[in-house]
Write a structure and sequence with these properties.
With 351 residues, the chain is mainly alpha-helical. Helices cover 70% and strands 0% of the residues.
Length: 351
C-alpha cells in the first residue's frame, strides 16, 4: 500500500513548478487529496483487519495490485491458520463416528454386497402378515392337524416303529412346508407378476465359490454351539429327551436314517430358505441396508427354531447363508449350504 505522506510531498513539489494561481489550486487540491488518502488508508486498514479470513481484495488506488496477486503459498498458510483457529472438535464424538464407519465398511467387505437392493412392491404390513401366518401354520399343522389325522386313523407317533416315526416326520415336514408356501403365494398373489430378481433359482452362475467359503464357517458355528450351551445349560428340573432321529441312529435302521436324511437335507432347507432368505431378507432391504437385513433375518431365523440353547449358532449360520444368497442372488446356493450344514450335523450324530 502506498504511503500517503510521500504522495502528499510529491504533489507539493509539483506545485512549485506551477504559476501562483495554479500553485494555490494545487496546494488546495493536495490537501484535499492527502486528506482523502488518509481516509482511504484508514478504511482499507480497517477493512483488511475485519475481512482477512475471506481473502478479499484491498486497494487504495485504482492502479494498485489486488490482494489476489499474493503467492499461493501465502494463501495456503492463511487457510491453515483458519483451520487452527476454528473450534476444536470433540475427540470422543470423532472416535465414535470412526468406529461406526469402520464397522459399516467391515460389514460391506465381509458380505461384499453387489448391485442394489431388491425392488419390494409390498409394505411392512405384508411382511409381518406373511411371517406371523407362516409361524402359526407351521405350529398348527405340526402340533394339531397331523396328530389329529393320525389319531383319526387309529395310531399315534409313539406307537410306531423307527421307520414309521421317520415316515411320520417326513409327512409332517412336507405338510408344514406346503402350508407355508401356500400362505406365501396367497399373500403375494396381488403383487403378481413379481420383479425378476425375486425367488430366483438357478443351477448356473458363480455361486460355487461362495458356498465353499460358507462351508469353511461350519467349525466356527459348531464351536459357537458349545459356547451357547455353556451360557444356557439344561435346567436340572427338565429331563433330557432323546429325539426320534437319535433313536433311529442308535438302532442303526437304514430306512429310517434315509427318511430322516431326506427331511434334514432336502425338505427343511427348501422351506426355510424360501421364507427367510427368499422372502424376508429381500423384503427388509426396503427399510434398511442389505447387511442389516441379513442380520435381522438371521435373528428371526434363530427365534423361529424355538431353542434358546442353539440361538447363537443359528444366528451365525443365518448370517452366512444370507451372505451367500445376497452375493449370488440365487436361492439354490443358500439351500445347498443349508443342506450341507444339516448333513454335517446329521453325520456328527452318527459318530
Amino acid at each position: 500500500m502506498s504511503n500517503p505522506t510521500c504522495c502528499h510531498c510529491l504533489v507539493q513539489h509539483l506545485s512549485l513548478l506551477l504559476p501562483p494561481v495554479s500553485r494555490f489550486r494545487a496546494l488546495k487540491q493536495s490537501r484535499i487529496y492527502s486528506r482523502s488518502l488518509c481516509n482511504r488508508s484508514f478504511r482499507c486498514v480497517e477493512f483488511d483487519s475485519t475481512c482477512l479470513k475471506q481473502k478479499r481484495e484491498v486497494c487504495c488506488f485504482r492502479h494498485e495490485e489486488s490482494f489476489s496477486g499474493l503467492p499461493e503459498a501465502e494463501l495456503v498458510q492463511d487457510k491453515q491458520l483458519e483451520k487452527l483457529g476454528g473450534p476444536e472438535l470433540d475427540q470422543s464424538s470423532v472416535a465414535k463416528k470412526d468406529l461406526v464407519t469402520s464397522f459399516k465398511e467391515a460389514a460391506d467387505v465381509v458380505f461384499r454386497i453387489p448391485g442394489k437392493r431388491w425392488t419390494v412392491p409390498w409394505t411392512a404390513e405384508t411382511i409381518l402378515q406373511v411371517m406371523l401366518l407362516w409361524i402359526a401354520s407351521f405350529w398348527f399343522v405340526g402340533s394339531w392337524i397331523v396328530p389329529f389325522l393320525a389319531h383319526a386313523a387309529g395310531f399315534s407317533k409313539e406307537s410306531l416303529t423307527y421307520r414309521g416315526q421317520a415316515l411320520y416326520s417326513l409327512l409332517t415336514d412336507v405338510a408344514e412346508g406346503l402350508a407355508g408356501i401356500a400362505i406365501l403365494h396367497r399373500c403375494l398373489s396381488r403383487f403378481q407378476p413379481l420383479p425378476s430378481d425375486w425367488f430366483r433359482f438357478n443351477l448356473g452362475g458363480n455361486w460355487q465359490f461362495d458356498v465353499g467359503l460358507g462351508c469353511l464357517m461350519f467349525p466356527l458355528v459348531n464351536r459357537l454351539s458349545q459356547v451357547n450351551l455353556n451360557l444356557v445349560p439344561h435346567l436340572p428340573s427338565s429331563p433330557i429327551t432323546v429325539s426320534s432321529v437319535e433313536q433311529s441312529i442308535v438302532a442303526r435302521d437304514p430306512v429310517a436314517m434315509v427318511l430322516y436324511a431326506i427331511v434334514v437335507a432336502i425338505c427343511a432347507p427348501m422351506w426355510e430358505e424360501i421364507v427367510f432368505r427368499g422372502f424376508l431378507l429381500p423384503s427388509l432391504t426396503k427399510y434398511m441396508p442389505v447387511w442389516c437385513s441379513i442380520l435381522v433375518s438371521s435373528v428371526v431365523f434363530a427365534i423361529a427354531h424355538f431353542n434358546a440353547q442353539r440361538m447363537l449358532p443359528l444366528i451365525l449360520l443365518g448370517m452366512v447363508m444370507g451372505a451367500v444368497f445376497t452375493r449370488s442372488r440365487n436361492l439354490f446356493a443358500s439351500m445347498l449350504l443349508h443342506s450341507l450344514w444339516n448333513c454335517f450335523v446329521f453325520i456328527d450324530l452318527m459318530k
